[in-house]
Design goal:
The chain is about 40% helix and about 25% strand. The strands form 5 sheets. It has a 5-stranded antiparallel sheet with strand order 2-1-5-4-3, with helices on both faces. Strand 8 and strand 9 form a beta hairpin. Helix 11 runs antiparallel to helix 13. The longest helix is centred in the middle third of the chain and has 50 residues.
Length: about 650
């Protein structure tokens, strides 16, 4: 029977598929399926499907001995009954076959019909329970032919847990020929906890109860598999407890898939969180712009020794801190990329120092080492900061009882072949992050940069992989050094930024005086603040709170010398507005304002030589400074 087991399994699967596709002459299809199944197992088989009203239709049953077909069909038929019995509800819920032997099989029909074993296999149509296929065995010595036809692993154990029968699929699950399983105790495939569970389940079967549960089994090659084990009692000819029948289903792939789904769900939640953080930070920066601008005006109108002046200065300091925090949050928000900038390494490490400290906590010390001559790098600031903070988080998790993190930056000139294949060469900035944590075994170190690989059950395994991806996207290279109980060192090599000096002849002539300014901002309070901040400088100001109004004004003949506009607006973005206005005024200077950072705005904002971005919140001095930098001198102040 071993050679026939898999072909029979496939044949039964084909039958189930044929049933699910039956649309014409369903009675004929059921009868054909029952006859085919009976021929394959050499005994009796039937098909019991649900009608449209949700109750069972008439059974289609066939036995190889024709004179037994009618009587057996009558006793097994459940026509007109609802699928609320124990077998139906189990089949509908588990969607797996039920194996019946001994008393449980005999209960299907009166004793004179001699049902000694049976298998009930659910029929699923469009992901819905539609009935079952029943296979019946009627000769006491032929029980073990039935388990050969099902895809589940089947073992029969004696009262001590030693295998007395094994079908072919269980040999596949356990990784050894089924002939070698006979006489082997199931305990050899279980750990200590699993062995205790086995004893408990055998005891329950001895008391006449069946059990179902999940456990882990060790295969012959030492690998572990997750399984679902159903156990039911088996009685001998005298009705005494003779052991248990086990149906074992390998669920490893299913569990792994669920784990991967949880990780992907976690990624989606992170992505949604990033979008939420970005939106909140943008709105917060708009509020801070109004607060900072108002405080700045109070500063300019009060004596330095007055309480009002000091209060306004305190407000400005608080806004500055808030601006730093929101920009750090935006670094972890959703970024479309393509906004690299030249970043001085001393500035980068100074900026992330507070993020490092908050990530590491009070138990872990932080030491930053870098010289003023370290070359700058060209990168997106947000992702690069995220990469470094990910390293800090991994170091923290490796030092639960405290320790030290050291970050150093040096210049290196790397020759071809000095680093791994594909690594950059030439002038590189070498960042080194070292911790004094538990370290890694060599096998773990080799896989530590793989996505989803983690040794912590509550982690998504994305920290180091994300860092590696960011470094590689920047054209850099990352390496890990680690020794158990000594610590871990991460080496990051980034190409140094090339210094580009603009030829004097190509510099934009900014000697013209700018008089007329058009302010476009969908937040009225921000628009009014910008107007108040620049009005004393003598500009002629027009304000629009939506982009379409601004387009209409310019199309009707208005000719501003400068456009100050928000980037993200409801009807039209700032860059789209600038493009529309420049069809009338090709050389119109544009000063963009945004609560988002340049990196967060990504490719939707393209800055040419005649445009700049001013990040919110800003003060009067930074706003006027940006206008001077973009457009040249101011008109004569009016007050």
């Amino acid at each position: 029977m071993g050679v026939m087991a898999y072909p029979l399994r496939y044949a039964l699967a084909d039958l189930a598929l044929a049933l699910s596709r039956a649309v014409a002459e369903p009675a004929e299809v059921r009868s054909t399926a029952a006859r085919a199944a009976a021929d394959m197992i050499g005994d009796g088989a039937g098909v019991q499907l649900l009608r449209d009203d949700g109750r069972y239709d008439e059974i289609a049953y066939h036995h190889l001995e024709d004179d037994r077909s009618g009587p057996l069909a009558r006793v097994l038929d459940r026509a007109g009954q609802a699928p609320d019995d124990e077998y139906s509800t189990t089949l509908a819920a588990s969607r797996r076959p039920i194996v019946l032997a001994g008393d449980s099989a005999a209960a299907l029909a009166p004793p004179e019909h001699g049902v000694t074993a049976a298998v009930l296999s659910p029929v699923i149509v469009d992901n819905t329970y539609a009935g079952y296929l029943i296979l019946t065995r009627h000769t006491p010595d032929a029980f073990y032919s039935t388990p050969e036809t099902i895809p589940e692993g089947v073992l029969q154990l004696d009262p001590e847990g030693v295998a007395t029968y094994a079908n072919e699929p269980i040999g596949v699950v356990l990784g050894m020929p089924r002939s070698e399983l006979i006489g082997v105790s199931l305990r050899g495939f279980l750990d200590n906890q699993g062995q205790k569970e086995l004893d408990r389940r055998i005891t329950e079967c001895r008391q006449g109860r069946s059990t179902v549960g999940a456990t882990r089994m060790m295969r012959a090659d030492g690998s572990r598999r997750s399984v679902r084990m159903s156990m039911m009692p088996v009685r001998d000819d005298n009705g005494e407890f003779g052991g248990v029948l086990c149906m074992i289903t390998d669920t490893t792939d299913h569990i792994d898939a669920r784990g991967l789904k949880r990780q992907l769900d976690h990624l989606r939640r992170l992505d949604s969180l990033g979008q939420l953080i970005g939106g909140l930070s943008h709105d917060f920066n708009n509020l801070m712009t109004v607060v900072a601008g108002s405080a700045d005006m109070i500063l300019s109108q009060t004596d330095e020794d007055s309480p009002q002046h000091q209060l306004a200065k305190d407000i400005m300091d608080a806004v500055s801190t808030g601006r730093t925090l929101t920009h750090q949050l935006l670094a972890f928000g959703r970024s479309e990329g393509n906004r690299p900038e030249v970043i001085p390494i001393p500035d980068l490490l100074t900026d992330v120092q507070s993020l490092f400290s908050r990530t590491l906590g009070e138990r872990i010390g932080l030491d930053l080492t870098f010289g003023p001559d370290v070359w700058p790098v060209k990168a997106e600031r947000g992702p690069l900061e995220q990469a470094l903070v990910n390293l800090a988080a991994n170091a923290r998790d490796a030092m639960l009882h405290g320790g030290m993190v050291r970050v150093a930056a040096t210049n290196e000139v790397v020759e071809p072949g000095q680093l791994a294949e594909g690594a950059p060469t030439g002038k590189l900035v070498h960042l080194v992050v070292t911790d004094t944590g538990v370290g890694m075994e060599e096998e773990i170190r080799k896989r530590a940069l793989e996505p989803f690989f983690t040794t912590r059950p509550t982690a998504a395994g994305l920290g180091l992989a994300t860092t590696a991806g960011i470094v590689q996207n920047l054209g850099g290279h990352i390496e890990l050094e680690s020794r158990p109980r000594i610590g871990t060192t991460v080496h990051i090599y980034l190409p140094a930024a090339e210094e580009q000096k603009q030829p004097a002849g190509e510099r934009k002539d900014k000697s013209a005086v700018i008089g007329r300014v058009l302010i476009v901002e969908d937040q009225p309070d921000v628009a009014q603040l910008v107007q108040r901040l620049i009005a004393p400088a003598g500009y002629e100001i027009a304000v629009a709170t939506d982009a379409l109004t601004a387009v209409t004004q310019v199309a009707s003949g208005a000719r501003p010398d400068l456009l100050i506009t928000d980037v993200v607006m409801p009807t039209m973005t700032g860059p789209e507005l600038a493009g529309a206005l420049r069809t009338h005024q090709p050389d119109l200077p544009v000063l963009y304002m945004s609560g988002y950072t340049a990196a967060s705005l990504g490719p939707q904002l393209h800055l040419d030589e005649n445009s700049m971005l001013l990040e919110k919140p800003f003060t009067r001095s930074t706003l006027l400074g940006a206008i001077r930098s973009l457009c040249g001198p101011q008109p004569n102040p009016t007050g």
